[in-house]
Amino acid sequence: MGVIEGEEPVRPNTWEQIKCTEKGVKDWIDENLKGKSCLVVLIGSETATRPLVIYEIQKAWEQGKAVVGIFIHRLNCPNNGYGTKGENPFDQLIFKRGDDVIEPLVYEPDSNDAYNDIKKNLSTWVENAINQ
């Protein structure tokens, strides 16, 4: 979407190498959380059922990072059409800072133009989570 600059996605060969083991994926997650202030979780139909997603959310929170969720079921895929809305993975966890329970911010993009809504607002949503 061009909103986050300087972030190169994992190359397919690298991903194939690390995804072979749970430890490989956890090490990759741990390494990629370094130097970040916010974890953005794109919430699809199966996100909440993925143990490694829950691991990533927990690790980010334990490290004092902000977390923000964005439902992506309204993005149109040319091959598969629209997805189904998944469960919120944050509902499985309790987020505390000191004695305060924090409710992570979760956004559901505009149903008429989800792609452009995310593109336009992603940086604001990340800042909102950091300032929370």
Automatic annotation (TrEMBL):
Gene3D superfamilies: Hypothetical protein MTH538 (3.40.50.9200). Residues 21-75 form the Thoeris protein ThsB TIR-like domain. Pfam families: ThsB_TIR (PF08937). It comes from the Bacteria. This is TIR domain-containing protein. It comes from Leclercia barmai.
